[in-house]
């Protein structure tokens, strides 16, 4: 389903695991990812696997490709990376301005982290946290709890968590680890040709509602990555 453009009283945010821009045809095509982003119509996008795997982890989706398309990039990585632990946040349009960024290390056997960007938006101040959680359930739960604890120490602000949570269950397993966040009903986004697992998710704090949300499956999203992007139109509560 192709999402309709958001109105002036809402803000569209999306999350997309771009698998280092390597599609299911095993071709690395950053501009194909860009084509999917264009179709999404989002103003803020949280990306996962945005950098190549080996040090110095250069950006898989080059900065100049994003800049040519009018996207701005939160400077979370440095040394040529697009993000941190593969997590990146991009945005575009005159309605949004960046005010602060940050990084958070998450516990677990695998090296995992989350990123934070704060914006001035038509909805007011807004905090966006992008993450890619671990493959092992007990560590995913610890990571969500840790993120909730870190969030409690920040200035109060409407907050969004978005990313690849790597959680197959549709039960409120992770929701119970962060009772102050409301997870949107999970919808299957993986694997992209025939989605079965609701791995990609969005959660909202008090002060925000989603007027609509979904999974974007227009071509070439079915082949550009092994995940489909998810999106939500947000409004003030």
Please count the beta strands (DSSP E, at least 2 residues each).
Answer: 12
Q: In CATH, what is the homologous superfamily? A: Endonuclease/exonuclease/phosphatase
- Parts with pLDDT < 50 across at least 5 consecutive residues: none
How would you characterize the largest beta sheet? Answer: 6 strands, mixed
**Helical percentage:** 10-25%
Tally of separate helices = 4
Number of domains: 1
Instruction: Give the CATH level 1 class.
Output: Alpha Beta
Mean pLDDT metric: 94
Question: How many angstroms separate the termini?
Answer: 26 Å
> SSE string, helix = H, strand = E?
EHEHEEEEEHEEEEHE
- Silhouette: globular
Structural category is alpha+beta
Per the CATH scheme, the topology name is Deoxyribonuclease I, Chain A
CATH 2nd-level architecture: 4-Layer Sandwich
Determine Rg (CA atoms, Å). 16 Å
Strand content: 25-35%
Strand order of the largest sheet: 3-4-2-1-12-11
Describe the structure concisely for a colleague:
This protein is α+β, with helices and mostly antiparallel strands and 237 residues long. The protein has helices spanning 30-40, 63-68, 137-152, 221-224; strands at 11-17, 44-48, 72-73, 88-91, 97-106, 112-121, 124-132, 159-164, 182-183, 200-204, 208-215, 230-236.
């Amino acid at each position: 389903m192709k999402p309709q453009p958001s109105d002036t009283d809402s803000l569209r945010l999306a999350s997309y695991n771009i698998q280092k821009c390597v599609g299911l045809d095993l071709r690395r095509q950053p501009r194909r990812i860009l084509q999917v982003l264009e179709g999404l119509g989002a103003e803020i996008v949280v990306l996962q696997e945005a950098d190549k795997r080996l040090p110095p982890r250069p950006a898989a989706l080059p900065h100049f490709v994003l800049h040519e398309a009018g996207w701005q990039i939160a400077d979370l990585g440095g040394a040529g990376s697009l993000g941190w632990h593969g997590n990146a946040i991009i945005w575009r349009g005159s309605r949004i301005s960046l005010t602060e960024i940050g990084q958070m290390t998450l516990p677990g056997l695998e090296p995992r982290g989350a990123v934070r960007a704060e914006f001035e938006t038509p909805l007011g101040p807004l905090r966006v946290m992008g993450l890619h959680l671990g493959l092992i359930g007990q560590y995913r739960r610890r990571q969500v709890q840790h993120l909730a604890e870190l969030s409690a120490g920040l200035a109060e602000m409407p907050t969004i968590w978005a990313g690849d949570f790597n959680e197959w269950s549709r039960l409120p397993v992770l929701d119970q680890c962060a009772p102050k966040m409301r997870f949107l009903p999970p919808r299957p986004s993986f694997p992209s040709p025939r989605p079965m697992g609701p791995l990609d998710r969005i959660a909202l704090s008090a002060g925000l509602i989603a007027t609509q949300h979904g999974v974007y499956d227009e071509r070439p999203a079915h082949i550009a990555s092994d995940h489909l992007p998810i999106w939500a139109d947000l409004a003030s509560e």
